């Protein structure tokens, strides 16, 4: 734990809310990070007891600063520097949607036919000529 001043973007990167520091900085500039109810600039120093509301693509965070950290550490260490006060519905809702909509894979039995399906469709469309007519 350090007593030096740490920028908001560096702190959010260090506690693993964002993958890169530039993503944290962009989120601050885009108004996705609120510090004690007001939009936070990336260069603002973080203090003990500060409360953040953060909107990321993955989920919404509501955290309270319990320790200042300037270097990125393992997740098991990083969680010691904040308290996650995020409501339960904000933690789970995006994860359920992401599993269905954002994986990039199609759902089973939907979309393009398999090779076997295509052959049976081709056979049906061509017709045998021996049908019961």
Can you put this structure into words, describing what you see?
With 133 residues, the protein is an alpha+beta fold. It has a single domain (8-102), classed as RNA-binding S4 domain (Structural Genomics Hypothetical 15.5 Kd Protein In mrcA-pckA Intergenic Region, Chain A, Roll), CATH 3.10.290. It is built from five helices and five strands; from the N terminus they run ααββββαβαα. The protein has helices spanning 8-14, 21-29, 75-78, 88-101, 115-126; strands at residues 33-35, 38-39, 51-55, 60-65, 82-84. It has a five-stranded antiparallel sheet with strand order 2-1-3-4-5. A hairpin with a 4-residue loop joins strand 3 (51-55) and strand 4. The relative contact order is 0.14. The mean pLDDT is 82. This is RNA-binding S4 domain-containing protein. One of its GO terms (molecular function) is ribosomal large subunit binding. Belongs to the HSP15 family.
């Amino acid at each position: 734990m350090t007593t030096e001043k740490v920028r908001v973007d560096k702190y959010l990167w260090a506690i693993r809310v964002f993958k890169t520091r530039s993503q944290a900085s962009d989120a601050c500039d885009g108004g996705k990070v609120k510090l004690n109810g007001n939009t936070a600039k990336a260069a603002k120093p973080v203090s003990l007891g500060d409360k953040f509301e953060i909107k990321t693509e993955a989920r919404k965070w509501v955290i309270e600063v319990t320790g200042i950290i300037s270097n990125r550490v393992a997740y098991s260490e990083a969680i010691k520097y904040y308290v996650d006060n995020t409501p339960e519905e904000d933690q789970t809702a995006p994860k359920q949607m992401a599993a269905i909509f954002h994986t990039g894979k199609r759902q089973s039995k939907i979309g393009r036919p398999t090779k076997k399906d295509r052959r049976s469709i081709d056979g049906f469309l061509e017709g045998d000529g021996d049908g019961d007519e």
